[in-house]
Amino acid sequence: MKSLFLTLWNLFLETVFPAICCGCRREGGLLCDDCLNAVQLRGSALFEVVDSECLDGVLACSEYQEGQMMAKLIYALKYDFVVDLAPPLGQFLIDGCTNAEMVADVLCPVPLHAKRFRWRGFNQAELLANVVGQEVGLPVENLLKRIHFKKAQMELRKEERKANVEKAFRMRENVDVVGKTVVLVDDVATTLSTLEACASALKEAGAQRVYGIVLARVY
Ligand SMILES: [Zn+2]
Predict the structure, then answer these.
(1) Smallest Cα–Cα separation from 213: which of 79, 76, 70, 55?
(2) What share of the chain is helix, strand, coil (3-state, %, to 5)?
(3) Ligand 1 centroid from CA 99, angstroms
(4) CA of 63 to the centre of ligand 1 (A)
(5) Burial letters 5-35, b for 16+ CB under 10 A, else e
(6) pTM confidence score
(7) For the segment 190-214, what is each residue's pLDDT rounded down to a tens digit?
(8) CATH assignment of the domain containing 87
């Protein structure tokens, strides 16, 4: 129902206001070729081994840089609610997964807290995961729920972020991850603490391996 509403709403907007590019504000479409090509990707992205007990690796399509095209597009998706950016952004994740020859059983979006979900109306990580799952032929399952709501990670100092997300995630009822390789999907990894907290819950529930894929990571 919500997605029908968004479709109709977008249709209305496109009729009344011609679409402008989220990158450069020129008329013509949501994302022009110039802006698409301006996204700076990290060479041939591979899963990087990270210093973590639970997280087996992370694939970041780009380095997060304020003001750069990837950051602008992620902002437009999350805060201007341009949900139609999910397919082109998801394509970056698909390319990354393909290059890295990703092997997985299931994709799991990093969940939003219910309160933030209600505010935004959608989970951007879930939109991205759906785009990837459809293309690479993997199921997308909401395995986790976020039980704490404190502050958005971007608003916190580095040392506060870990404490903010520790034990913030819990497995949903009636999901089974025993022996599975789970790939977490998110838009931005500010630190790895969110992905680690998710991985911790999944490993505790029996997942064999847990990886993360993100559009952008702060290094
Ligand atoms: Zn543009």
Answers:
(1) 55
(2) 40, 20, 40
(3) 26
(4) 20
(5) eeeeebeeeeeeeebebbbeeeeeebbbeeb
(6) 0.86
(7) 989 999 999 999 999 999 999 999 9
(8) 3.40.50.2020
